[in-house]
Design brief:
Length: 284
């Protein structure tokens, strides 16, 4: 048995064409969706992520505003800037690129963003809405994974989903989304004893622990759908995921590659959230 590879790059490209069409329709109504990004410091990975977000905005017609600060910037200055952006009519989404320098508390920064403009879906109010099944903003990576599963016509209801990873950005919201969609959900992590006892029972296995090739063939049930959120470097310096792709693809029915799987969907769903914010703010 060999897996069907879920081409996240192609699915993201298709979705962005749809997003561009939505932006054009909003522009006819005099609304230009706008995303403000705050970047602090000189972290190379953060700069790359921000550059990719700006490029995606440009491709789809979304207006982007970049505000860059030295790593020494104070928390107070950032919060004042966020408050200013909360009040700007041409800014519909606000994103603060993480991680932040150690002297800045990310919780304070996230909570300063208006929940109506929290397109990352990290604000406690949006997290609360997700837990209670209300409409709000959902973190972009879990939202992108749901879109990938929809694209392969995967029925989530009734399935046993195992999420390996418990971060606030991926693991926890992913588990909640799946629960909201009537899956039976088990949450594991890197310190779970006898991990394979749980993962081997998964119809849907999602791994987001940030450890290269953490899950092997022995962790996966025959025919399971495997979603790899990891982005790591192997011993040769090559990009790889949390899943040992070359071995797991022999047992999984569907699998996402790294790169080219979940990654392209994250920024794509950010754009989708910006459009949602623009519509909500303008009561469309």
């Amino acid at each position: 048995m060999s897996s069907v590879i879920i081409d996240g790059k192609a699915i993201a490209k298709k979705k962005r064409i749809e997003i561009k069409r939505k932006v054009e329709q909003l522009k006819i109504q005099g609304i230009i969706p706008g995303l403000a990004v705050i970047l602090v410091g000189e972290d190379s990975a953060s700069k790359t992520y921000v550059r990719n977000k700006q490029k995606a905005c440009m491709e789809t017609g979304i207006q982007s505003f970049l505000f860059e600060y030295e790593a020494s910037v104070t928390e107070t200055v950032l919060i004042e800037k966020i408050k200013e952006l909360n009040d700007k009519e041409d800014v519909h989404g606000i994103l603060v690129q993480l991680p932040l320098p150690k002297h800045i508390n990310p919780k304070n920064i996230i909570q300063a963003i208006s929940p109506d403009k929290d397109v990352d879906g990290f604000h406690p109010i949006n997290i609360g809405k997700m837990v209670s099944g209300e409409d709000g903003f959902v973190p972009c990576t879990p939202l992108g994974i749901i879109h990938l599963l929809n694209e392969i016509n995967y029925t989530i209801r009734g399935k046993h989903a195992v999420v390996v990873g418990r971060s606030n950005i991926v693991g926890k919201p992913m588990a909640q989304l799946l629960l909201n969609m009537d899956a039976t959900v088990t949450i594991c992590h890197s310190k779970t004893n006898q991990l394979e006892n749980y993962t081997k029972n998964a119809d849907l296995l999602i791994c987001a622990v940030g450890k290269a090739k953490f899950l092997g063939k022995n962790h996966v049930k025959d025919g399971a759908v495997v979603i790899d959120v990891g982005m790591n470097r192997d011993e040769t310096g090559k990009l790889c995921g949390d899943v040992d792709f070359n071995h797991v693809k022999d047992v999984a029915s569907y699998i996402t590659p790294v790169p080219g799987g979940v990654g392209p969907m994250t920024i794509t769903m950010l754009l989708e959230n910006v459009i949602k914010a623009a519509k909500n703010i303008n009561k469309i």
